Amino acid sequence: xxxxxxxxxxxxxxxxxxxxxxxxxxxxxxxxxxxxxxxxxxxxxxxxxxxxxxxxxxxxxxxxxxxxxxxxxxxxxxxxxxxxxxxxxxxxxxxxxxxxxxxxxxxxxxxxxxxxxxxxxxxxxxxxxxxxxxxxxxxxxxxxxxxxxxxxxxxxxxxxxxxxxxxxxxxxxxxxxxxxxxxxxxxxxxxxxxxxxxxxxxxxxxxxxxxxxxxxxxxxxxxxxxxxxxxxxxxxxxxxxxxxxxxxxxxxxxxxxxxxxxxxxxxxxxxxxxxxxxxxxxxxxxxxxxxxxxxxxxxxxxxxxxxxxxxxxxxxxxxxxxxxxxxxxxxxxxxxxxxxxxxxxxxxxxxxxxxxxxxxxxxxxxxxxxxxxxxxxxxxxxxxxxxxxxxxxxxxxxxxxxxxxxxxxxxxxxxxxxx
Length: 419
What we know:
four-stranded antiparallel sheet; PKD domain containing protein; Delta_60_rpt; Quinoprotein_ADH-like_sf; Methylamine Dehydrogenase, Chain H
């Protein structure tokens, strides 16, 4: 068994070296391994809220305080943010001082990373909600001047010259934006040509839970608590054309999420990701037990070509358990949450006809929408809130410590197989 683990570690190291950089959202050939590598560090408390890959470095954000080396068990104090090397798990000295939790991270240019959260100070200086940090020093990148609030950034992604941020904020760097903004990747200046004017008909706070951008940078998807965008009906899910000139809400739409799951949810959508070629997207949802006619507690595929109203291509329901996260590759649509089953449209927190057990993590066939045989298992807890693809495989972040039937403290990597 030890030889198997070592071979996996060597494989991942080779993949990283061959790629030159591990880039989030990269296409993976074949389904990733069910056996996690043994060298990822163990986070000993709290939960993971975000991960970003910068070259061969993984940056992890959340609300934790202590991280341990997987091989030696040696502990290091790391509040809310730390970094480790792909292929070895070696922790970096990177240890910026933040006085609050991190809710989102995104890769930055030139060996930097963006972090957002509830913090109001960075390395002792007043700097609320959003910062760009140098991975070599842990210091703030002085040229990036943006801050966040009031409200909170809940999701970020970087694409070319831009950083996209979504959340519950009403302003960012003093500019009014309801829940979604685009910033210059280098200076943090809010783009005046990007304002999708998200709104809720009940007058409540707009909240964007997840954003994704196609690899060519031309299209953006966002999910969350909103009913309209630029005055057009867009219930919980929108597409925008962002490739050139001022951004505009796409003519593509769906009415799949117009119906409520439970009154307590202002939005029940939690994750969104595009296919590597940008031809479709997948959406992960919570929502509660509502039977097979609604989109609650499900993952769904939508083709995104053309305009007009689009129904889902397929829907895979858990039978009453939350899905938090989704990551799409050529071979699979991966989902994470605290689900017990997939293929379970008639389940009501039990296994209905045809249900297959897939605790915490699952892979769905992109064409058929049925669960693949792949079943590493993950301890449930609140659930797997973070899935990130890179050339090395699938990074998994959560609040629990069992992945692949072995101890992995809140972080794991299921390595690429290359087949």
